[in-house]
Specification:
mainly alpha
Length: 62
């Protein structure tokens, strides 16, 4: 009877270890491809206003 319990316990341990090995694992995120071409440096309209022609400060009146 003791041998049967030992064999059953060993079988249960092996089956549980095999089931745990089949569980999905989180995969690393693949790297994004690098952009091809030239970066748009200086293409934004920031700082493109003529000197001295910038609008004045915003003043609110109540």
């Amino acid at each position: 009877m003791v041998k049967v319990m030992i064999v059953a316990g060993a079988t249960l341990a092996m089956v549980s270890a095999a089931c745990a090995a089949d569980l999905p694992h989180p995969q690393p995120i693949p790297p994004q491809p690098a952009p091809i071409g030239k970066m748009p440096i200086g293409k934004a309209p920031i700082g493109k206003a003529p000197i001295g022609k910038a609008p004045g400060p915003v003043v609110s009146r109540y």
